[in-house]
Structures are given as C-alpha cells and as structure tokens.
Design goal:
The chain has 2 domains: 2-164, Endonuclease, Chain A; 178-318, 2-Layer Sandwich (Endonuclease, Chain A), CATH 3.30.870.10. It has 11 helices and 15 strands. The chain has helices spanning 2-11, 38-48, 63-74, 130-134, 146-156, 183-195, 211-222, 233-237, 241-249, 284-288, 302-315; strands at 27-31, 52-57, 78-84, 99-103, 113-116, 120-124, 139-144, 165-168, 173-179, 200-205, 226-231, 253-256, 266-270, 274-278, 292-298. The strands form 2 sheets. Strands 8-9-15-14-13-10-11-12 form an 8-stranded mixed sheet, sandwiched between helices. The longest helix is centred in the C-terminal third of the chain and has 14 residues, at 302-315.
Length: 320
C-alpha cells in the first residue's frame, strides 16, 4: 500500500491540471525533480491565453509547441517568439504565421521566458524541448504580476538593458538582472551574498567556469561555511573540471547527476535565506556576452523557503 501511495503521488502531476500563478498565489515553483510535468506546466497557460504570448528560448522548439502556437495564432492570439538563430537555423519563420525574431548577436540568445497576457511570466532553466521537459533536471518559477511581466518582456528586445528589475511580493523580494547589460551588478549581488554566508551554500550549476565565483566559494569554505556544488557529470569532467578540482581541494562537497540526462539547473541557496536561479550558467560568457538573466529571491516567506528546500532535497536522489 505504501508503494502504491508513493507511485500515485509521483505520477499525480501527469494526470492533473497544472496550477499557474494567480492573484491568490503569486509565485509557483515547478521542477521535474519535484515530479512536476514541465510540458503541461508550459502548455496549460498557452492554451488558456486570451490576448498575447511572448516566448524566448535557446535552441530548438519541440514541434508540438510550434503547432500549438500556430493554432493559438489562428485563434487570434498575438504571438511573439524570440530564439537564438545561430543554434536554430532551420526554423522556417514564413510557415509559422506569427511574429518571430531570430537573434544573431555575438553572444547566445539564452534566455528562457514565457509570458502570458501581460500578467503572467515563467522563468528558469527550461528550454522548450522534449528533452528539457522529460530528461534533464530543470526548474521553472512562475510569477503573477502585470508590471513585472511587462518589464521582463521589454528587456528581451534590448541586449544592453541596463536596469535592475525589482518587485516585492508578499512571499519574496524579486531582483532580475538582465545580462549582459547588468553583468557587474549581477556578479556583485551573487558574490556579496556568498561573502555574507554564515553556515551553508548549496549550488546546482550545469556549467561552472567563473573563477571569481569559485574564489568567493573558497573564501566561504575557509570561514567554515559548508559548500556543496552539484555539476552535470559531463561538464564536471569537461568545462567545469578546473573549478570542480579547486573547490574539492579546498573542502567543498562536489556531486554530479546519476542519470543520463543533463543536470541543467543554474541555482544556489545561501543559508536557506537567499535563492539565486535563472538562465545563466556560472561562466564569463553568460555574464558578459550572452543574452541571459540572473534572478535573486530574498526575504523569503516560510512557504517559499519550504518549496526551495523541497527542491534541493528532492534533487539529491538524482545525484551522486
């Protein structure tokens, strides 16, 4: 009976309608490590949209999503799709019947954003692909706020967007650093939070090569702060190898995913009080060259702390 109950609990999100953020629940967390169906999480608000849909992502869109967007456009919904043209050169914009923009700047268009009806926005590490939904470790955080949604959509168009986007929710204070325009402010916010850590820092980063951030973590280790860093297992042996070895040598616990998909998170929890996440890997290119973003949540409510703690705890069973 216990096993059946656990099986039902783990499969329940695949048979129930997702809960999107709303005026009564302004922030919602979704991850495949916490048994959310990320595909349904994204499809549901697209299917319910009444006016406008804005998307931005890196790489290819899965065909089902493009068909759904085309159907919604035929029903009169405004669609605006941003993508990295260098990584997805085969997209035939003429066949889609809605507005598209292939970004061709020197850096990657790496932001992952879904905005609905100028009031609802989903942010995180999840690309709009089947592998991102089902195979890779990913996060989405949804926010209900017309003002916030408008500002985040505006920054998509400006690769040098210089303004910090902030909003205070009852559940948390939100800070959005658009990269590369806010590269210095974003890096400073992250490093200052690490420098102020007193007890524990937990990081799950797909690619980690930024030596200034690793130096800050090493300083924290020398102050007696516990540091745990989970990397994608291929990245740990490749691009992130130098940082992994530096941190391990100085006493950090280094972990990796134990499955065939990617450990695609870009998130960090400091003393259980400050939560960073976003589209940006911890690389110089992400902060200084790519169209990326870093988000900081602090002044967390007990409910948000519980959800973030659940996310990190649930992820552990997918790590070695």
């Amino acid at each position: 009976m216990v096993l059946l109950a656990l099986l039902f609990f783990s499969l329940r999100p695949y048979f129930t309608e997702p809960t999107s953020p709303s005026p009564t629940s302004l922030i919602e967390f979704y991850s495949n490590q916490t048994f959310h169906d990320l595909q349904k999480t994204l499809y549901h608000p697209i299917e319910k949209a009444t006016k406008r849909i804005v998307l931005s992502t890196f790489g290819e869109f899965e065909p089902g999503l493009l068909q759904l967007l085309k159907k919604r456009a035929e029903e009169g919904i405004e669609i605006f799709l941003h993508y990295d043209a260098k990584s997805f050169p085969r997209l035939n914009e003429a066949l889609l019947d809605f507005s598209t923009k292939g970004h061709r700047a020197s850096g990657l268009m790496h932001q992952k954003i879904l905005a609905i009806d100028d009031k609802l926005v989903f942010l995180g590490s999840t690309n709009f692909t089947h592998a991102s939904y089902k195979m890779h470790d990913n996060l989405l955080v949804g926010f209900y706020s017309p003002e916030l949604t408008a500002k985040i959509c505006a920054q998509i168009e400006d690769p040098h967007y210089p303004f910090l986007i902030e909003e205070s929710f009852p559940e948390a204070r939100f800070s959005f650093y658009s990269l590369p325009g806010q590269k210095m402010a974003a890096l400073s916010s992250l490093i200052h939070a690490i420098d102020a850590a007193k007890e524990r820092i937990e990081c799950q980063i797909f690619t980690f090569t930024h030596l200034k951030i690793s130096d800050a973590l090493i300083s924290a280790l020398r102050r007696g702060v516990k540091v745990e860093v989970t990397l994608d297992k291929k990245s740990k042996k490749g691009a992130s190898k130098q940082v992994a070895e530096l941190l391990s040598k100085n006493g950090a616990l280094i972990k990796q995913n134990n499955h065939q998909g990617l450990m695609h998170h870009k998130m960090c929890l400091i003393d259980g009080e400050i939560f960073f996440f976003g589209s940006a890997n911890w690389t110089k290119s992400a902060f200084e060259k790519n169209r990326d973003y870093l988000i900081r949540l602090d002044h967390l409510s007990d409910e948000v702390k519980s959800k973030v703690k659940e996310l990190f705890q649930s992820s552990k069973k997918f790590q070695t």
